[in-house]
Write a structure and sequence with these properties.
The complex is a heterotrimer of chains A (331), B (443) and C (338). In chain A, 58% of the residues lie in helices and 2% in strands. Chain A has two domains: 122 residues, no CATH class; 161 residues, no CATH class. Chain A is globular, with a radius of gyration of 21 Å. Chain A has 331 residues and is mostly helical. In chain B, helix 11 crosses helix 14. Chain B has a six-stranded mixed beta sheet with strand order 1-14-13-17-15-16. A four-stranded antiparallel beta sheet of chain B has the order 2-8-7-4, with no helix packed on it. Chain B has a four-stranded parallel beta sheet with strand order 11-10-9-12, sandwiched between helices. In chain B, helix 5 links the parallel strand 10 and strand 11. Chain C folds into three domains: 56 residues, 3-methyladenine DNA Glycosylase II, Chain A, domain 3 (Orthogonal Bundle); 171 residues, Alpha-Beta Plaits, CATH 3.30.70; 59 residues. Chain C is built from 13 helices and ten strands. In chain C, the strands form four sheets. In chain C, strands 3-4-10 form a three-stranded mixed beta sheet, with no helix packed on it. A two-stranded antiparallel ribbon of chain C has the order 1-5. The relative contact order of chain C is 0.10. The chains are: A mainly alpha (331), B alpha/beta (443), C alpha+beta (338). Chains A and B meet through strand 1 and helix 1 of A and strand 15, strand 16, helix 10, helix 13 and helix 14 of B.
C-alpha cells in the first residue's frame, strides 16, 4: 500500500447537512409566497423579484471578488439568493428598478459584507435594505399597488394596506367596528388578496413555507410561535380593553409583515439567538415591539423595526441566556 | 415511549454491517506488541526483561498506583525487547514485544467453556481479583475497573448500570457478545453487584438490537434484581452520564462522577471480563473487536489477543480495500484514526473501522452561520460554537466558565455542523489548556 | 422664527455649561493619580503591544519600569538597547545592555528530507494536531507545518514556505519578542543572540529519540553521535537525550562542529565561504545559478546543499546569497578531500 492513511481528530462521520442545503431549503419554503405574489401583482412582482435577486447576487460577487479579494467566491451558497428574495418580499411591487438596486446594494454591502460576510452580520440584511428604502424613499415605499392588476408595473393603481387604513381611520376618531367594510375580510387576508409588500400578503402560503422548514428541520418553532403568540396576546389584551379603538388579534396577525417577519425574517439564523430560551425571549420582544409600534407609534407597520431592534439585542441575549447545562448544580 | 436522555444527540446512519457475523477467533500473531499503558492512569511497570520466556496470562507489567492496573502476556514466547513502539497517535510509547512460540497458558487459568455460576468471594476479594487480572472498562475509555468498583468513603452506590447501548455506528462487538455470552454477562453482573453491594442492576440496550433485548429479557426474568431497558436509538446514548439520565433520571453533577448520584456504569464487555477474571481466573488478554467498513470484503467480529497488529485483522477480512482513506480504532464518532497499521490491538480497541477515501476527507470549513444546531444537539447543554471561538481567541477564563470541561467529546456538534467547522477539535484544545491552567492554579 | 433660533442656541449653551460643570466636578472627585512618568516611558516604547516583555502591552511594561527599582530584569525585545536606554534616561536609572536576540527554527525536516507517512486532515492548528497525533512524518518532534507561529507573529517576520513546509524567519523583521517560542507546541523556536555580524550556529533538530530511530524519519536529524562535542574546544556543546545543544554564550563561532556533523544538523548562518573560493561576480544572479555550475565537486555538493535549506531569509546582497550557497559547497569539498 503506497497510499497514505488520513489522520484527523474525531468525529470521522459527518452529517449531510450543509450551508447550501439550509439556504436552498429556505428558498424552497419561500416559493409558495412568491407564487401568490405573482398571482396578485403580476408582472411587477416578477420584475421586482428578479431585479432584487440578480442585483443581490451581483453585489455579493463583486464585493467578494474585488474588495475582499477572496479566491473562492461563495455566491452559490444561496445566502445572497435568500437575501434577494426576502428583500423583494418586503417591497411593494411597483417600486422603480433603481430603488430596488439601491435596496439590494444596501442589504448586501452595508447589511452583510461590511461586517465580514455570511454569518457575521448583526442585522438581517434584507431588513436593513428595506428599512433604508423606507426611510429614504417613503413615498414610493408606501404606495402599495392593489392586487389584481397583472400587467401594470409602475403605473399600477395604488391604495393603502389594511393596517394603514385602520391606523388612519382610528386616528380620525372612527371606531374599529365602523370601518370593517373598508378592509378586506379575513378570507382575503388569509389568501393574500390585499395591498402590501410582495411576500407578506398571503398567510396561508407563508404557513406552508413554515411547515416545510419545520419538516426539514431548518428552523425550530420557537421564534415564529413566540412572535405570533405575543402579537396575538398583546393585541388581544388591547382589543379586550377597548374593541372600538383597537384592531382584533387575528387582524394583527394576518396583516402587515407579521407572518413574513415571524417565519422568515426573525428566524434568520445569523441574527437570532442561539439558545432556545434566548429565541423565545427574542420572539416575545419582537411581538411586543411590533404591537407597540403599530398601535402607539407613527408607522402603521412595525415588524421590520421590531426585528432590527431585537437583532441588536441578540449578542446580549447570547451572553446572558445560556442553555441548561447538563448536571448544572442549581444554587 | 422508549427511554432516552432529554436533550440533544444526533442519529447518524447506523451501518451495523457486521452485526450478523458470529465471533471468530483470530489466529495468533507472530509477534505481539503489548503497550505498558493501555488504560487510563499511570503506566504499568514492566516485570520481564529481554529474553524472558512468558506464558499466556503471565503478568508482564505491574500496576504502579491506584489508578493503574496489571498487564498480562497475551501470548506465549520470548520477550524480544522492551522498546518504544508507535501507538495510534504516532507517538512512541513503551511496549513489551514478544515473539510468539506455541500457545502455552498459565496453569491457573480455567480454559473450560462451562458456565460457572456460583461464586463465594467477598466484595473486596472480587475487587482484588479484578485488579490482579488487569480488567479495565472495555467500552473504550479503559478506566481501570477496580477503581470504579471501589466506592469512595462517604458515598454509596445503589444501582449498577450495564451499558449494552453500543451507540457508535458500525461497531457490533458488544452486540455479538451480548448474543453469544449472555449467561456469562449475567454472572458477571451478579459479581459486580456483589462487589458494589447493590441490589439492582439495569441493563440498557439500544432498540436497534431487538435480539439482544430478547435474550436478556428472558435471562432477567430468571435473575431477580436485574432489569433490561430498551433505549431509543440516539447518539450518544452510551455516554455514561446520558445513560444514567435515561435509565434512572439522575443527573451527574458537573465535574462529578456517576457515583455522586449512586450509580456505577459498566460496559457489558467489562462484565464478561469480570466473569472470566473471577470465575475462570483468566486475565484480560483477549477481546472482541469488530472489523468493519463499507468496502471491507468480510465484515466480522474477531476474538483477538491483545497486542496483535491491526494489519492482521484486516488481512483476515480480505485485506485493505483499495479505496481506503482512514483506518479508525473505534467507532466513527469517537474513535481515533490510526496512522499506521502496525499499531497493536489494545484493551480499549472495540473495533477497527475502515472508511473509504471519499468519506475520509473533511469538507472545507465555511463561515459559521449561527444556526445553533451545535447548541441544540449538545447532550451536555454547552455552546460548541462559542467554545470554539473563545478557544481560537485564547480566552481561557471564558472557556472555563462556559463549562468546556463538561464536554464529553461525543462529536455531535461537529457531526451536525452545516458549515463543517472543526468544533470538537478546538473544544478539545480548550479543554486541555483549561485543565492545564487549573492544575497550575492548584499548585 | 428668530425667537426659536435664539431659544435653541440659549438652551443648547445652557445644557453645555451645566454638563461641563458636572463633568469638571466629577473629574475632580474621582481623579486617579497616575505617575506622569508612565506616560513618558510609554512614549519612548515602540507601541507594538506584542507582549514580548512579559507584560500586557507597552503600557503594562511602562508601569512595571516605573515601579521597579532597577531595570535589570526588564527588557523590551522590540525596541532593544536603544529603547531601554531611552527608558533609563526618562527614569534616571541604569539600563543593562543586552545582546539583541532573534528566533531560530530548530527543525530542518523539509518535505523532501522528512517524507510524510500519513496525511493530517484536522483543524489547521499545530497544538490541536500535536495534542492528538505525532504529526504527518516519522518524526514526532519536528515542525508540523500548520503555521501557528506565523499567526502569532506580530511583525510578519515568519512566513510559511510551501515548498519545504517549514516557517522561515525574516531576520530583518524578527524582534525576538518570544511569541513564536511560546506558541510552538513542539518548542522548536529558540531565541539566540544575533551574534557578531549576524553569524549564528545552532543545532536544527529537537528530536529526543535514539539515533537510529530518528534517522528513519528524517535525513537531517541530530543523531546524538557526540562528534561535535569532542570537536568543540570551548565546551559549548552538550548532548542530552540524543540531541545536541550549542550554548550560544560559550560558542565562539569557530564552525568546527559544522564540519564534523554527519547529518548536517548543525546550521551556520551568514558566514563567509571557507577555504575554497568560488568566484562570484557582482552581478545580480540568483543563487540557483551558482548551484548549476557544472563542476563535479559542486554537483555532489548540490544534494548536500539541498539538505541544508537556509533557515533565514536575509535581505543581503547577491554576493552574500551566493556565498551562502558556496559555503555548503566548500563544506562538502573539504569532506570529500578527507
Amino acid at each position: 500500500m503506497n497510499k497514505l492513511l488520513t489522520i484527523s481528530p474525531s468525529p470521522h462521520n459527518y452529517g449531510d447537512d450543509s450551508t447550501k442545503k439550509v439556504m436552498y431549503g429556505v428558498v424552497i419554503a419561500m416559493i409558495p409566497a412568491m407564487l401568490v405574489s405573482f398571482f396578485y401583482f403580476g408582472i411587477g412582482a416578477v420584475v421586482l423579484t428578479l431585479t432584487a435577486v440578480v442585483s443581490a447576487l451581483v453585489f455579493e460577487y463583486l464585493i467578494q471578488k474585488f474588495i475582499l479579494k477572496k479566491k473562492e467566491v461563495s455566491i452559490t451558497d444561496g445566502s445572497a439568493l435568500v437575501t434577494g428574495i426576502l428583500l423583494a418580499f418586503n417591497l411593494p411591487s411597483n417600486l422603480p428598478i433603481h430603488l430596488i438596486i439601491i435596496g439590494a446594494f444596501v442589504a448586501i454591502a452595508v447589511g452583510k459584507m461590511s461586517f465580514g460576510g455570511l454569518g457575521q452580520n448583526p442585522f438581517n440584511p434584507a431588513l436593513v435594505g428595506r428599512v433604508f428604502l423606507l426611510i429614504s424613499f417613503p413615498v414610493q415605499m408606501t404606495s402599495w399597488p392593489k392586487p389584481g392588476a397583472l400587467t401594470a408595473y409602475l403605473d399600477a393603481e395604488t391604495g393603502a394596506t389594511p393596517l394603514a387604513i385602520v391606523k388612519e381611520a382610528l386616528k380620525n376618531g372612527e371606531s374599529f367596528s365602523s370601518i370593517t367594510e373598508k378592509i378586506p375580510g379575513y378570507a382575503d387576508l388569509m389568501m393574500g388578496n390585499m395591498g402590501g409588500s410582495l411576500g407578506e400578503i398571503s398567510a396561508i402560503a407563508l404557513l406552508i413555507g413554515f411547515a416545510y422548514m419545520l419538516f426539514r428541520k431548518i428552523i425550530t418553532w420557537h421564534i415564529p410561535v413566540s412572535v405570533l403568540g405575543t402579537i396575538a396576546i398583546f393585541s388581544g389584551i388591547l382589543w379586550l380593553v377597548n374593541p372600538e379603538t383597537n384592531a382584533d388579534p387575528l387582524f394583527h396577525l394576518l396583516t402587515g409583515g407579521a407572518m413574513l417577519g415571524a417565519i422568515f425574517m426573525a428566524t434568520d439564523m445569523v441574527t437570532s439567538p442561539m439558545s432556545i430560551k434566548g429565541q423565545v425571549i427574542f420572539g416575545v420582544g419582537i411581538g411586543v415591539l411590533t404591537i407597540v409600534i403599530r398601535v402607539f407609534g407613527a408607522y402603521p407597520e412595525g415588524v421590520s423595526f421590531a426585528i432590527l431592534i431585537m437583532n441588536a439585542f441578540v449578542p446580549l441575549i447570547n451572553a446572558y441566556v445560556k442553555p441548561k447545562r447538563f448536571g448544572e448544580v442549581v444554587k | 415511549m422508549l427511554k432516552t436522555f432529554p436533550k440533544g444527540g444526533v442519529h447518524p446512519p447506523e451501518n451495523k454491517i457486521s452485526a450478523g457475523a458470529a465471533i471468530e477467533t483470530l489466529p495468533l500473531p507472530t509477534t505481539a506488541t503489548i503497550p505498558i499503558s493501555q488504560h487510563l492512569g499511570a503506566p504499568s511497570a514492566p516485570t520481564v526483561k529481554k529474553g524472558d520466556k512468558v506464558k499466556v496470562g503471565q503478568i508482564i507489567a505491574q500496576s504502579t498506583g491506584f489508578v493503574s492496573t496489571n498487564i498480562h502476556s497475551s501470548v506465549s514466547g520470548t520477550v524480544q525487547k522492551i522498546d518504544d513502539s508507535i501507538d495510534a497517535s504516532g507517538y512512541k510509547r513503551k511496549a513489551v514485544i514478544i515473539s510468539v512460540e506455541g500457545d502455552e497458558w498459565d496453569e491457573n487459568i480455567d480454559r473450560s467453556p462451562e458456565l460457572k455460576k456460583e461464586f463465594s468471594l467477598s466484595g473486596p476479594d472480587i475487587i482484588k481479583k479484578v485488579l490482579e487480572n488487569g480488567v479495565v472498562g472495555l467500552g473504550g475509555a479503559t478506566f481501570p475497573t477496580h477503581v470504579k468498583l471501589s466506592v469512595p468513603k462517604g458515598m454509596k452506590a445503589d444501582v449498577l448500570i450495564l451499558n449494552g447501548v453500543e451507540c457508535e455506528p458500525y461497531l457490533t462487538s458488544d452486540h455479538r457478545i451480548m448474543l453469544e455470552k449472555a449467561d456469562e454477562i449475567i454472572v458477571g453482573t451478579q459479581i459486580l453487584m456483589k462487589a458494589l453491594d447493590v441490589k439492582k442492576a439495569l441493563i440498557g440496550i439500544e432498540n436497534n438490537k431487538p435480539d439482544a433485548i430478547e435474550v436478556f429479557s428472558k435471562l432477567a426474568d430468571k435473575n431477580p434484581g436485574i432489569e433490561v431497558h430498551p433505549l431509543k436509538v440516539q447518539y450518544p446514548q452510551g455516554g455514561e452520564k446520558q445513560l444514567i439520565k435515561a435509565l434512572i433520571n439522575r443527573e451527574v453533577p458537573s465535574g462529578g462522577l456517576p457515583i455522586a448520584v449512586g450509580a456505577v456504569v459498566q460496559n457489558v464487555g467489562t462484565a464478561l471480563a469480570v466473569y472470566e477474571a473471577v470465575q475462570k481466573n483468566k486475565p484480560l488478554i483477549e477481546r472482541v473487536v469488530s472489523l468493519t467498513g463499507k468496502s471491507v470484503k468480510k465484515p466480522a467480529n474477531y476474538l483477538v489477543r491483545i497486542g496483535t497488529p491491526v494489519a492482521e485483522l484486516i488481512e483476515a477480512s480480505g485485506g485493505l480495500p483499495d479505496d481506503t482513506g482512514k483506518v479508525i480504532n473505534g467507532g466513527p464518532m469517537m474513535g481515533k484514526a490510526l496512522n499506521s497499521l502496525e499499531v497493536p490491538v489494545t484493551k480499549g480497541t472495540s473495533g477497527i473501522l475502515i472508511i473509504p477515501e471519499l468519506e475520509a476527507r473533511r469538507r472545507p470549513v465555511q463561515n459559521c452561520i449561527r444556526c445553533a444546531r451545535c447548541t441544540q444537539v449538545c447532550p451536555m447543554g454547552l455552546e460548541p460554537y462559542l467554545l470554539m471561538t473563545l478557544t481560537q481567541k485564547s480566552m481561557w477564563d471564558k472557556v472555563e466558565t462556559n463549562h468546556a470541561l463538561d464536554c464529553i467529546e461525543c462529536g455531535s456538534c461537529a457531526y451536525t455542523c452545516p458549515a463543517d467547522r472543526p468544533l470538537l477539535d478546538y473544544i478539545r484544545l480548550g479543554k486541555t489548556t483549561v485543565s492545564k491552567l487549573i492544575r497550575a492554579r492548584k499548585q | 422664527m428668530s425667537a426659536t433660533v435664539i431659544f435653541t442656541i440659549v438652551s443648547l449653551s445652557a445644557i453645555g455649561v451645566i454638563a461641563a460643570t458636572i463633568l469638571y466636578f466629577v473629574a475632580q472627585k474621582f481623579k486617579v493619580f497616575e505617575d506622569p512618568r508612565i506616560d513618558q516611558v510609554d512614549e519612548v516604547l515602540p507601541g507594538a503591544n506584542c507582549g514580548g516583555c512579559g507584560y500586557p502591552g507597552c503600557r503594562g511594561f511602562a508601569e512595571a519600569c516605573v515601579k521597579a527599582n532597577e531595570l535589570d530584569a526588564l527588557f523590551c525585545p522590540v525596541g532593544g538597547n536603544d529603547c531601554m536606554a531611552d527608558v533609563a534616561k526618562v527614569l534616571g536609572k541604569e539600563a543593562v545592555a543586552k545582546d539583541p536576540e532573534i528566533a531560530v527554527l530548530r527543525c530542518a525536516g523539509t518535505h523532501s528530507l522528512r517524507p510524510n507517512v500519513n496525511q493530517y486532515d484536522g483543524a489547521a492548528n499545530c497544538t490541536i494536531s500535536s495534542n492528538l497525533y505525532g504529526g504527518e512524518t516519522g518524526c514526532t518532534f519536528g515542525c508540523l507545518g500548520l503555521g501557528e507561529c506565523v499567526d502569532v507573529c506580530n511583525f510578519d517576520a515568519l512566513v510559511m514556505d510551501p515548498e519545504t513546509g517549514l516557517p522561515v524567519v525574516d531576520a530583518d523583521k524578527c524582534t525576538g519578542c518570544n511569541a513564536c517560542v511560546e506558541q510552538c507546541p513542539r518548542d522548536l523556536f529558540e531565541l539566540r543572540p544575533k551574534g557578531k555580524k549576524d553569524r549564528r550556529i545552532y543545532v536544527a533538530c529537537r528530536n529526543m529519540e535514539k539515533g537510529a530511530a530518528k534517522k528513519i524519519g528524517c535525513e537531517v536529524a541530530c543523531i546524538g553521535c557526540n562528534r561535535c562535542v569532542k570537536e568543540c574546544a570551548f565546551d559549548a556543546i552538550v548532548v542530552e537525550n540524543f540531541n545536541a545543544y550549542i550554548d550560544p554564550i560559550k560558542c565562539k563561532l569557530c564552525r568546527k562542529c559544522v564540519m564534523v556533523c554527519p547529518t548536517g544538523a548543525i546550521h551556520e548562518l551568514n558566514f563567509p565561504p571557507r577555504k575554497v573560493k568560488v568566484e562570484v561576480e557582482g552581478e545580480a544572479e540568483k543563487p540557483k545559478a551558482v548551484k548549476a555550475k557544472p563542476e563535479p565537486v559542486v554537483e555532489v555538493a548540490a544534494s548536500k546543499a539541498e539538505a541544508q535549506p537556509e533557515r533565514v531569509v536575509e535581505k543581503a546582497s547577491p554576493e552574500a546569497l551566493s556565498n551562502k550557497e558556496n559555503e555548503n559547497t566548500s563544506d562538502q569539498s573539504i569532506k570529500l578531500g578527507e
